[in-house]
Design goal:
Blueprint: H1 16-30, E1 34-39, H2 42-56, E2 63-66, E3 75-77, E4 90-96, H3 103-110, E5 113-123, H4 126-131, H5 135-140, H6 153-164, E6 168-172, E7 177-181, H7 207-211, H8 216-225, E8 233-239, H9 245-258, E9 262-266, H10 270-286, E10 292-294, E11 299-301, E12 307-310, H11 313-320, E13 327-331, H12 338-343, E14 349-355, H13 363-376, E15 380-386, H14 397-406, H15 415-418, E16 427-431, H16 433-438, H17 440-453, H18 459-467, E17 471-478, E18 481-492, H19 496-503, H20 512-520, E19 530-539, H21 548-560, E20 566-572, H22 575-583, E21 587-591, E22 603-609, H23 612-633, H24 642-650, H25 662-672, H26 682-693, H27 703-714, H28 719-725, H29 731-749, H30 752-761
Parallel strand pairs: 1-5, 1-6, 2-3, 2-4, 4-5, 8-14, 8-15, 9-12, 9-13, 13-14, 19-20
Antiparallel strand pairs: 6-7, 10-11, 11-12, 16-17, 17-18, 18-19, 20-22, 21-22
Main location: cytoplasm
Keywords: Acyltransferase, ATP-binding, Cytoplasm, Nucleotide-binding, RNA-binding, Transferase, tRNA processing, tRNA-binding
Protein name: tRNA(Met) cytidine acetyltransferase TmcA
């Protein structure tokens, strides 16, 4: 698309070129960025964007349009492909928000504008935009709701911020008026920290690496990363977005490889690690140490065996623990779950680089959820923080605008205000979206806790919280401060044609439990009952493990008992989480048979029935789960963690009948009390193991004995592997231990035939 026209402007029309030139000059002088917003007709907005480019004389290859429109002579990116801008910089980025606008897209686009550059936002008339519907609203309209049920609070709040935030120029193209010229000079510092080689320590990395640092902060971070040259060292690098932590990590990786060391780099995906490899490749090339590979291949080799290579996070822990690896660098660590982060603690040396405030993940969440494990490990931990922006100067108004609009800096209450909160002195509240919108402080506290609850909270989640018709929020407060929060998604009550569509393989948004039950587990009636799924639950870190989460779930259960058929939850299965939900009345009904690509965990689905219909749904799925789980553990779930299997089975609220024949009982008794063999009838041993593991309180077995049942009997591992994992001296000792484990099961579950057979050996 070319410019729609160069017709003469009305005499009183805004001079877009002059306005853009003024903001560009101001941005360049301060090495900051400015935001220009053009509201009104879409074609007029695109014309205005062309005026911006012409008025600022920016080269075409430094301009990107993010729009669904086609035909531009400039670089164009589809809004849903905005993540491709991560790690890149542009002088002018134009975001067309008339179609397919989402908060995620805005966050990604804003980060691509370089210091001295302009972010241009094209929107409908702000008053019209608030009530307008687009494809993002359609994604929020999960069945049985329609797009007419989607609210517009996020855009209303967003429009309000555009009208009053410093450094934002606002032009109404329909009215041909400049509502705000966006002039801004407050908070500007012209004293950019000069990078220097730290002088208070002996440095081992090449001097060239320090010369490539852009700020003193980055130089200090690189010096701290020199600790990776030694084993049992861990470095935590924290920074807001755009501070150069990935570049520092890349310089460290290149420096280590130049010494002949093998460096594994991991991140949520390759895209997140791109900057690490770009900087490592550039440094190695300057040092004349690059002999093979490229940043595009995410694999670099140096003379003497040095290497920098990307490994997916689900594999990085195992790879880093091998003898060949010298160090592991984890970029965007906050966007990875704790289980994966913990798996990295077997590396010889490890660096965790994490974004404190940004859509990639929440650094505070990383600190709260994982930092204790790191501090308790054998590593000597070094902390370093980068505060100085790399791409633009401090005080940048576009950064503060993005933080405010997308709540990237949302935090729960400070510890001191909630330290005395306990189950007996808190209050239960329904926090409606209107309540949150009316109280920015309340919104920040609630969203801040939700950020800590999950490792991948995104700006889109803020819009869902405010506008999605299927979501509702409940909280516990202490003296007016939020200390625990649960986000619930209403599911079910689906029309017959929708249920048939799911049964035939179609995907339905926002109905996770009915979707799995219907499409995977072949229950076409699963979408009839109404349930509330606990999407996220979080308790303030200052009062965790004090019973507040259980108190909140108890209040939710009491509130919805008369209005829903069941409560449900789905999560990456860990023994701790399974035990928590079991304690709160939830029962296992499914374990996924594939691992999550990011977390590396198998998902567990659990239900807490409330009505007769809910009990019927729960009971049939609990029964079906028990019918299949023995076979699945020997197949798709053969690598499931033994303690996860134990906890999942213990949380099944259904009776399991072992149903052994007289012959099978004689075999089991012979293998436990006498000279018989487990291999004679493994199916009988499997059924008896399931009977115990689903009711572990009936017979007394140690945790090690139960792991033996899982690994050998249910997952059919080789004796040598079982003996090695469970620390038996030999396979013979493991075999004897299995027989010993079945003695109390014979005593508990065996009838007359089994007990008579037992007497022969006693």
């Amino acid at each position: 698309m070319t410019r729609s026209g160069d017709a003469s402007r009305r005499p009183d029309a805004p001079d877009i070129e002059s306005l853009a030139a003024a903001r560009r000059d101001e941005a360049m002088a301060a090495n900051q960025r400015r935001l220009l917003v053009f509201t009104g007709d879409r074609d007029a907005g695109i014309d205005a964007a062309f005026d911006v480019v012409r008025g600022t004389d920016v080269p075409e290859d430094e301009v990107t349009f993010v729009t669904s429109r086609e035909g531009f002579r400039f670089d164009r990116v589809e809004p849903r492909q905005a993540s491709s801008l991560l790690g890149t910089t542009r002088t002018v980025v134009v975001l067309d928000a008339h179609e397919d606008f989402s908060p995620n897209t805005l966050g990604r686009v804003a980060g691509a504008v370089d210091g001295g550059g302009l972010l241009v936002l094209l929107t409908p008339s702000l008053d019209e935009w608030v009530s307008r519907r687009d494809s993002f609203d359609e994604r929020l309209a999960v069945p049985p709701f329609t797009v007419d049920d989607v609210a517009s609070r996020f855009r209303g709040r967003f429009a309000s911020i555009l009208r009053d935030h410093p450094g934002v120029a606002l032009v109404d193209l329909d009215a041909q008026t400049v509502e705000r010229d966006g002039s801004y000079s407050q908070g500007i510092s012209f004293d950019t920290p000069v990078p220097s080689v730290p002088r208070d320590r002996t440095l081992r990395f090449p001097h060239r690496a320090y010369e490539d640092c852009l700020t003193a902060d980055q130089s200090d971070a690189l010096a701290a990363l020199e600790a990776l040259r030694k084993s049992e060292q861990a470095v935590v690098v924290e920074a807001d977005r755009g501070r150069g932590k990935s570049s520092a990590a890349g310089l460290a990786a290149g420096s280590l490889a130049a010494e002949g060391r093998d460096v594994v780099v991991t991140a949520p995906n390759k895209r997140n690690a791109a900057e690490v490899f770009v900087r490592a490749e550039r440094l190695l090339a300057k040092l004349d140490k690059l002999v093979a590979g490229s940043a595009d291949e995410f694999d670099l080799s140096t003379p003497g065996g040095g290497r920098v290579r990307y490994v997916p996070p689900t594999e990085a822990g195992a790879v880093a623990a091998t003898a060949e690896t010298d160090a592991l660098i984890v970029d965007e660590a906050a966007a990875l779950p704790v289980r994966l982060l913990a798996s990295f603690l077997d590396a010889p040396a490890v660096a965790f680089c994490t974004t404190v405030r940004g859509y990639e993940g929440a650094g505070r969440g990383f600190a709260v959820r994982f930092r204790d494990r790191l501090d308790e490990s054998e590593y000597e931990v070094t902390d370093v923080r980068l505060d100085d922006p790399i791409r633009y100067a401090a005080g940048d108004p576009v950064e503060s605008w993005a933080f405010r609009a997308l709540l990237l800096d949302a935090r729960p209450p400070v510890d001191q205000l909630v330290a005395d909160a306990a189950p007996e002195n808190v209050s239960y509240w329904t926090l409606t979206p209107d309540d949150l919108l009316a109280d920015e402080h309340l919104l920040r506290e609630a969203f801040g806790l939700l950020v800590l609850a999950h490792y991948r909270t995104e700006p889109d989640d803020l819009a869902r919280l405010l506008d999605a018709p299927n979501l509702t929020l409940r909280a516990l407060t202490y003296e007016g401060r939020i200390v625990s929060v649960a986000l619930l998604a209403r599911e079910g009550n689906l029309a017959a044609e929708t249920r048939t569509h799911m049964y035939d393989g179609g995907r339905i948004r926002g109905n996770m439990l009915p979707d799995v039950f219907t499409s995977q587990l072949r229950d076409e009636d699963a979408g009839i009952p109404v349930g509330y799924r606990v999407m996220r639950i979080a308790t303030h870190h200052a009062v965790r493990s004090s019973g507040l989460g259980s108190r909140l779930l108890s209040e939710i259960r009491e509130e919805f008992e008369a209005d829903a058929d069941y409560l449900g939850v789905g999560f990456g299965a860990t023994p701790e989480l399974l035990s928590f939900w079991r304690k709160n009345g939830y029962s296992t009904v499914h374990l996924s048979t594939t691992r999550n690509d990011t977390s590396g965990e198998y998902s567990a689905l659990m239900l807490h029935p409330l009505s007769e219909a809910g009990h019927e749904l729960h009971d049939r799925h609990a029964d079906w789960f028990l019918q299949r789980v023995g076979d699945v553990l020997g197949d798709a779930l053969s690598d499931l963690d033994a303690d996860v299997a134990r906890a999942a089975l213990a949380a099944v609220d259904a009776d399991y009948e072992a149903a052994l024949s007289d012959y099978e009982w004689r075999v089991v008794v012979g293998a436990s009390y006498g000279p018989g063999l487990y291999t004679t009838a493994p199916g009988a041993f499997r059924r008896l193991a399931l009977a115990h593991l689903t009711s572990p309180d009936c017979a007394s077995l140690s945790a090690r004995a139960e792991r033996l049942l899982v690994r050998k009997v249910l997952q059919t591992r080789a004796w040598s592997a079982v003996a090695d994992e469970l620390d038996f001296h030999s396979t013979a000792q493991a075999m004897r231990a299995l027989g010993d484990a079945y003695e109390p099961l014979v005593d508990e579950y065996g009838g007359d035939v089994a007990h008579d057979e037992r007497e022969r050996y006693q």
